[in-house]
Design brief:
The protein is of the alpha/beta class. 37% of the residues lie in helices and 14% in strands. The protein starts with a helix and ends with a helix. Pfam families: Glycos_transf_2.
């Protein structure tokens, strides 16, 4: 039996959308052609509840879940993840799906043992200057020690999580994708990025109904960075040279300069004091040569 077919039977495809979307039906049919055995979940923000108060219905062979009208795309994904039953969760954008070739590559990454697959981004390679949001994505990846991710983020679909990743970071964390990514890295999940072919990346106008304001995105990234540094220190585990800042809290212990460069009690020839004397000699020699020059 084909391994890809096995994954399809255990796959949940989650699509956040809103009540004014027009291309969801087309997207659902397109995804079902590529993944006929997958569980389809549509989380619709602003969907009017039914008269019998059933919040889950079925349309076009997909499970439709109602969400609040002001829910963002990441909040809709968290709701969809809660209802998903598959061992692999594929999160798509309401505007675009995945081509068949691209889908096979992404599923292959899961079969290779990766827990999280994000959409690769050519940060720094584009002709136009990246926006401030992409800089925020890139900065967080650098702090996480994954500069190779560029500006990839769980804020942007498509991406894949397996059941292990979902249980590790908890579906609620998907409401704040930056925090979810920090949790995934801290828990040691296997994360990779996979590009999308240009043919599958059709430029459609972004959906403002599910979009987050930039201020919210920056606030979420600040929260993620704060959580990341809590397990490290004020410098984020970055080296501090030869500085001994703790000595600044002691009064009358050492000279002020020794707070930053603690001088050893042993007068070594190559110690801090010796280097300072050599530098002083060089300065004096330059000054003497300057005086001897004819004006």
């Amino acid at each position: 039996m084909d391994a890809t077919h096995d994954v399809q039977g255990l796959l949940s495809v989650i699509i956040p959308t809103h009540d004014q979307a027009r291309n969801v039906e087309r997207l659902v049919h397109a995804v079902k052609q590529v993944t006929p055995g997958a569980e389809m979940i549509i989380v619709c923000a602003g969907l009017q509840p039914h008269a019998d108060d059933i919040s889950v219905s079925y349309v076009w062979g997909a499970k439709v879940i109602a969400a609040e009208s002001n829910a963002s795309s990441s909040e809709c994904r968290a709701i969809g993840a809660k209802h998903a039953t598959g061992s692999v969760l594929l999160f798509l954008d309401e505007r675009n799906g995945l081509s068949q070739a691209c889908y096979k590559k992404w599923i292959a990454k899961v079969q290779q043992g990766y827990d999280v697959v994000m959409c690769a981004d050519d940060f720094g390679q584009a002709k136009t200057k990246p926006g401030s949001v992409r800089y925020a994505f890139s900065f967080l990846n650098q702090l996480l020690g994954h500069r190779q991710f560029g500006s990839a983020s769980l804020e942007k679909a498509p991406f894949i999580l397996n059941r292990k990743a979902l249980e590790t970071i908890d579906f609620r964390a998907l409401c704040i994708p930056a925090v979810a990514l920090v949790k995934a890295v801290k828990k040691g999940l296997a994360i990779t990025c996979e590009p999308i072919e240009r043919s599958a990346r059709k430029r459609l106008p972004p959906s403002q109904a599910l979009a987050k304001p930039k201020s919210v995105l920056f606030e979420e990234h600040a929260r993620a960075i704060h959580m990341l540094l809590q397990d490290k220190n004020e410098r984020g585990a970055m080296p501090d040279g030869e500085r001994h800042r703790i000595l600044a809290q002691e009064t009358g212990l050492l000279h002020l300069r020794s707070v930053f460069y603690q001088e050893s009690d042993d007068k070594e020839a190559d110690g801090w004091g010796a280097k300072r004397k050599e530098r002083t000699k060089r300065i004096r020699k330059r000054a003497q040569r300057h005086k001897r020059r004819p004006h």
